[in-house]
Specification:
Elements (H helix, E strand, L loop, with lengths): L1 E5 L5 E5 L8 H28 L10 E4 L20 E7 L4 E2 L8 E5 L7 H6 L4 E5 L11 E3 L4 E3 L6 E3 L5 E4 L11 E4 L2 E4 L12
Antiparallel strand pairs: 1-2, 3-4, 4-5, 4-6, 6-7, 8-9, 9-10, 10-11, 12-13
């Protein structure tokens, strides 16, 4: 007759009754060590991935939420009025419930404009008249926070660089030399949804 011993690792050691044998303690210790290292490594990978999730760039399917909105309420097309000043938002992954606010490069400006004034490239990126661009000025990295309605240009107050939101973020006036990175949008159930990545890397540079 056999009796089965369950060790702390959940392995079974079948022994003959009365034989005095059992699982090799050295082997069991080694097995525990291997399992422990494997679990620790897996936890480390998961932890590293989670730690960087808020720094990941906008991705297809992300929603947009206002900066400093503790409720992470998705921005809708109806929230934006024609030709009004831009709204600064962050991308939000609804699947993992991650607000991608760990990098300033993820600060995005959105505004609603008349599609009739847009060039073809801008129309292709827009949704219901709403355009989205990196809010990171390509000159020195300040927020592009001003709107000049008469000119229909965006402006950075730091050094007064201007950008044309109707022309895919092209530079309208320096010292910036690089256009704003444009982000394609779509509308689902009224909510603004990211339809793809930036057309160029956001940030400073020629």
């Amino acid at each position: 007759m056999k009796k089965v011993m369950i060790d702390p690792m959940g392995t079974e050691a079948a022994t003959q009754q009365g034989c005095g044998c059992g699982a090799d303690p050295v082997r069991r210790t080694a097995l525990k060590a291997v399992v422990g290292v494997t679990l620790a490594a897996a936890a480390g990978v998961r932890g590293a991935a989670a730690a960087g999730a808020d720094e990941a760039p906008p991705a297809k399917g992300d929603l947009l939420v206002k900066v400093n909105d503790d409720n992470n309420t998705p921005v809708t097309s109806a929230d934006l009025k024609l030709n009004e000043k831009q709204l600064i938002v962050y991308p939000y992954d609804p699947a993992s419930k991650t607000l991608r606010d760990g990098s300033r490069l993820n600060r995005i400006l959105v505004m609603k404009l008349d599609p009739a004034g847009m060039d073809d490239a801008t129309k292709a990126n827009a949704a219901d008249g709403v355009v989205a661009y990196s809010a990171f000025c390509t000159h020195q990295g300040c927020d592009v926070s001003a709107w000049l309605p008469d000119e229909k240009n965006l402006m950075c107050f730091c050094h007064f660089s201007k950008f044309a939101p109707l022309k895919l973020g092209a530079v309208a006036n320096g010292p910036a030399a690089k256009p704003l990175a444009a982000l394609p949008l779509k509308v689902e159930d009224g909510k603004l949804v990211v339809a793809g990545g930036f057309n160029i890397p956001p940030g400073k540079g020629a």
